[in-house]
Amino acid sequence: MEQLQMTRSTQLKTKPATDQLGFGRHFTDHMLLMDYSKGQGWHAPRIVPYGPLTLDPSAMVFHYGQEVFEGMKAYRTPQGEVVLFRPDMNLKRLNHSCERLSIPQVDEKALLDAIRQLIVLEKDWIPEGEGNSLYIRPFIIATEPGLGVRAAHDYLLLVILSPVGAYYSEGIHPVRIYVEDQYVRAVRGGTGEAKTSGNYASGIKAQEVAEGLGFSQVLWLDGVEHKYIEEVGSMNVFFKVNGEVITPALNGSILAGITRDSVIHMLKSWGVKVTERRISVEELYTAWQEGKLEEAFGTGTAAVISPIGFMKWEGHEMEINGGETGDYAKKLYDQLTGIQRGELDDPFSWRYVVR
Amino acid sequence: MEQLQMTRSTQLKTKPATDQLGFGRHFTDHMLLMDYSKGQGWHAPRIVPYGPLTLDPSAMVFHYGQEVFEGMKAYRTPQGEVVLFRPDMNLKRLNHSCERLSIPQVDEKALLDAIRQLIVLEKDWIPEGEGNSLYIRPFIIATEPGLGVRAAHDYLLLVILSPVGAYYSEGIHPVRIYVEDQYVRAVRGGTGEAKTSGNYASGIKAQEVAEGLGFSQVLWLDGVEHKYIEEVGSMNVFFKVNGEVITPALNGSILAGITRDSVIHMLKSWGVKVTERRISVEELYTAWQEGKLEEAFGTGTAAVISPIGFMKWEGHEMEINGGETGDYAKKLYDQLTGIQRGELDDPFSWRYVVR
Ligand SMILES: Cc1ncc(COP(=O)(O)O)c(C=O)c1O
Ligand SMILES: Cc1ncc(COP(=O)(O)O)c(C=O)c1O
């Protein structure tokens, strides 16, 4: 990759109060851009003042959704360092998504280094306060103007940064989940294992229905048989059944979460048996009836761990662990956030220090 | 809807030569815009000079793909009138797509009238020449800045116009189709029956693979069993088997094509038996082996009718009708394009005259 060019903003923004951050509502002073054009490849990496994009109305992203994105967080450690959590995994997944969407591959190392430089420049934007962080959103959009349905020849890669508040302002607590029996997020052979906008567009409707019924997220079943558990909202999902932890296998229609991978490693390091396999909702319900469904929780960058206290599937209502956060969920949350925020040792070398 | 505001371009573009049009590569001097914001609803319809959009990099369309679109054509009749083909159906489908994507409904009548005014203004852009037309692309994008995954509160509706060349520069001719056995376009419960960008993003990869193997389009099988025929590229598909015409039923994962609907009406008016039902590729192959697969063709706004001369499914290669355009395909093409271009009577009242 060429040398990164930097144009500094001459008018810095006022930073929002750390107790008013929310998620993805405020953006920092600068962003990272890089262009792709056929023949030239990826070129002109640059940090510029955060500002509007100018695109032709026929830019392909508006019509055929050729887009991929990532999401990760930068944390400030008690020692004043700035750290990322396994960013190499995010950039690897970005390229995996690119592959599915016919978007040209990026140089992962060079992009990580460019992101590093952006974060160094914006380090004052990493909010103080327990659980706050700087959310990093890399994304690539097809910018070529034209209405033919095919892979574009021109793309823009962007990285924008947003200071975000703690997911749990009052401590980790369980959510209510609705097992979606009508809408489908993704199917084998589709784009489910890519992080691409269309997957999320497809889920908005189901999320609205679930919220209307008093649930905070939907649990997605597989698109083929409507039987097997896939994900929960924008999280992977784990269950503790009779002492064993089970999670849906990466079957091609679910996203390979980085928190998921980390949870599996961590549980195994504790000597817990973890199995990745197909899990039917029926099996889960039976386990629940027999009193063997001991815990359920989602995993993702936003919440890290999201305990599930209640699940509704068709006529069946399941309270899990008395509606309380389970022991594994609590311990995983404490350990993972501890590592992420630099408060604990890093036995798996997951931290990347931004220098 | 409020009164349409009009700002005329002061610098009109040079129009492209009518033999160099291609598809969706040139755009006219003006476009139609309309805003939506929560509380205010759809407002400020306006015709303005065609030009770039300015959007925040966090605009939701770039991240979560909340988008819908439509496609139709304006033709110039031998009498010098400008006509659209069943535009009410397109706007109805637009609202149907909006519903699935949690985008607020538009006033179909008012929008059609605004499109009418845009076309009147741009009528000199409707290209002369057999088979040429003015392609009309209405679309709606979520413009609200922010990274929370939910329906946006702000949207922009646009209508852009592109003079397009004849689909068949050398007369209607058959294409080679590859039956896709790995990738899936859509699944029951997904967004397949909506015209939304994510569906097309998902198909680009398969299209590339098929082209690499020497085919011009893919035939999509259902996402559940990979057995039943859904669509061909961006077209609906029909087969003539033993004198009867069959086409996949609208099962929720295929787009309800307006050409499809018109073909069904027209065939029935000729006394042909048309059945909408589930069709397995196996059944089709058996019919082919028995010499009963007499015709196959796709239907869509772009090509109107696209005869299929050859189909490959797993190891099986099927030449259909000796690789030639079938009688129904030819007659439907002639009749439909004749009605669309105002060269024939309009027995079904499908033409909408732009005045
Ligand atoms: C659909 C979906 N599943 C799972 C996850 C969890 O992935 P990660 O742990 O990498 O954040 C995400 C993203 O956060 C997601 O969008
Ligand atoms: C996926 C898909 N199927 C079918 C069609 C055909 O629809 P219509 O006849 O309304 O153009 C289209 C659009 O042209 C399409 O995009």
From TrEMBL, chains A, B:
Pathway: Amino-acid biosynthesis; L-isoleucine biosynthesis; L-isoleucine from 2-oxobutanoate: step 4/4; Amino-acid biosynthesis; L-leucine biosynthesis; L-leucine from 3-methyl-2-oxobutanoate: step 4/4; Amino-acid biosynthesis; L-valine biosynthesis; L-valine from pyruvate: step 4/4. One of its GO terms (molecular function) is branched-chain-amino-acid transaminase activity. The keyword Thylakoid does not apply. Keywords: Amino-acid biosynthesis, Aminotransferase, Branched-chain amino acid biosynthesis, Pyridoxal phosphate, Transferase. Its cofactor is pyridoxal 5'-phosphate. Signal peptide: none annotated. It comes from the Bacteria. PROSITE patterns: AA_TRANSFER_CLASS_4. SUPFAM superfamilies: D-aminoacid aminotransferase-like PLP-dependent enzymes. Its EC number is 2.6.1.42. Pfam families: Aminotran_4. PANTHER family: BRANCHED-CHAIN-AMINO-ACID AMINOTRANSFERASE (PTHR11825:SF44), SUBGROUP IIII AMINOTRANSFERASE (PTHR11825). Belongs to the class-IV pyridoxal-phosphate-dependent aminotransferase family. This is Branched-chain-amino-acid aminotransferase. It comes from Paenibacillus puldeungensis.
